[in-house]
Amino acid sequence: MRLSRFGEKFAGRSGVVDLMTDLGEALRADPDLVFMGGGNPARVPAAEAAFRTALEGLVADTGEWQRLAGAYQSPQGDPAFREALARYLQQHYGWDLGPGHIAVANGSQSAYFILYNLFAGPMPDGSQRRIHLPLVPEYIGYADAGLAPDFFSATPPAIEQLPDRQFRYHVDFDQLVVDDGVGALCVSRPTNPTGNVLGADELARLGALARDAGIPLIVDGAYGEPFPGITFTEAAPHWDEHTVLTLSLSKLGLPGVRTGIVIAAEPLIQAFASASTIISLAAGNLGPVLATGLLEDGTLDRLGSDVLRPFYRARCEETLAGLHRELAGLPWRVHRPDGAFFLWLWFDDLPVPSSELYRRLKARGLLAIPGERFFIGLDPAWDHARQCLRLSYAQDPAAVARGLRLLGDELRGLYDSGGR
C-alpha cells in the first residue's frame, strides 16, 4: 500500500498520538494508575447536574429533539446558538460582532487544523509561511497540525524567578521577530501546559505586532473566559477584527460533545466554514443546542464563577501544598498557576530527560506528561525543555496525593543515583 505525503505524515509517528495511545494502553493495563496526564476535566457534581437537567429538558421537547438529533447544522453551525453567543458577547464585552462572526467546529483540534492551514504552508506566490508561537511551551496538540514541513517557529521564553519556588515564562519581545515568513501568531490563554495567563499588556503588544504585519493573532481560550472561566487572575478576553478567538465546551466538563467555537472577522469565518464543511460536512448538534439555553439563562456564567473556578482553585492550592511537602529538599520549581488545571514543574539539573522520568513514573503507577514535546518550534536539545513535567490536578485528591508521593520518591532516587 503506497501512501501519499499526507498519508505518510498523518499515519506516522506523532507526539500527541503517541502519548494518547500510551496513556490509553497504560490505563487499560492498570486501571489503578494515578492519572495525572491528559487534559480531561474533573468530574464536578454541580456542573454535571446542570448539564443533565438541561439535556433532559431538550429530550422531552419534541421540537428541540429534531434540532438536537434530526437535522444537519449549517456550515457555520447552529444559527440559534451563534445568535445567542453573539448577544452574550455584545452584552458582556461590548464587542461589535454578530452571528456571522462565529463558526462551530467538531472540537478545537479540528478547528486548529483548518485555521493553521488557512494561514501557513505554501502560499500562492510560491513562498512559505509558518505559524509562530511567541511563547512556548505550548499545547502539544498543535505540533502535528501542519500539512507542510517546517510549519512552526517559536521564540524562546524569558524566565522570571519568583518566590516560593515559583517561576513564570514571559514573551521575550526583544527576541520576537515577525517577518514575512510568518502567517499568524498563536497563543493559548490560559496556556496548556503551564497555566500561564498572558497579561493584557502582553496580549495588546502581540495584537499590534500582528496587525502591523497584516496577519491574525490567534488566541486559544479553551480554559479561559467567558467559559469555562478557569482563571485565578485577571483574564478578561479580547477580540477585534484582527484577532481569532477560539472557545470550547470541553473544559466545562463536556469533552465528549466535541464543540469548538471560532470567533473572527466575517470573511475568515466564511472561509473556515467552507473548509470545515468539506472536511466534516457538519458539526455536531448536541453541544451548541445544549449551550444555547445555558447561555441564555445565565447557567454558564454561574458555573464558571460559582462552581468551576473555586473548585479548581482549591484543587490547585491543595496540590501545591502537596508538592512542597513531597518534594522538600529537591531542586524543583513550579510555574505560577494562573489558570487551567495543570501544574508545570521544572527540575534543575534533572539527571535524565523528562521522557525517561515519564517512563519511570509510569512503571511505578503514575502517569504524567514529559515536557520535551511542548517546546514546539525550538531546538529540542535545549536543556530546560528536558527538565519539565506537566501534572493535572483534575483527579480525585487522594489519588493526586498518592501520585505526588510517587513523584517525590522517584526524584529522590534519581538525584541520589545520578540517574543510574
What report would you give on this structure?
The chain is an alpha/beta fold and 420 residues long. It folds into two domains: 5-46 and 302-414, Alpha-Beta Complex (Aspartate Aminotransferase, domain 1), CATH 3.90.1150.10; 73-298, Aspartate Aminotransferase, domain 2, CATH 3.40.640. It is built from twelve helices and 16 strands. Strands 2, 3, 4, 5, 8, 9, 10 and 11 form an eight-stranded mixed beta sheet that branches. It has a six-stranded mixed beta sheet with strand order 6-7-12-13-16-15. Strands 1-14 form a two-stranded parallel sheet. Strand 8, helix 7 (200-213) and strand 9 (217-220) form a beta-alpha-beta unit. Helix 3 (45-60) crosses helix 9, helix 6 (108-119) crosses helix 8 and helix 10 (299-326) packs parallel to helix 12. It is globular and about 65 Å long. The mean pLDDT is 93.
